[in-house]
Amino acid sequence: MASSYNTAASGNANQVTVYACYDWRPPLAGFLLIPKTLTLRAVITEALQYQQ
């Protein structure tokens, strides 16, 4: 179980952010008005909690 340090010192909590991008080329691109590439993007941010 994590401690309450993150809640008590929220201004000093460490955060980790992960960015992911992927250019997807769907099958049948160019037919049925589907673009040749679609860019998929995701962002995840989490605050670290400390074990004591």
Write a structural description:
- This protein is mainly β.
- It has one domain.
- 8% of the residues lie in helices and 38% in strands.
- It has one helix and two strands; from the N terminus they run αββ.
- The relative contact order is 0.40.
Distance N to C terminus:
9 Å
Query: How much is the radius of gyration in Å?
Result: 20 Å
- Give a quick account of the main beta sheet: strands, pairing sense, barrel closure: 2 strands, antiparallel
**Shape verdict:** rod-shaped
SS strand fraction: 35-45%
Count of DSSP helices?
A: 1
Helix content: under 10%
Q: Give the topology string: H per helix, E per strand.
A: HEE
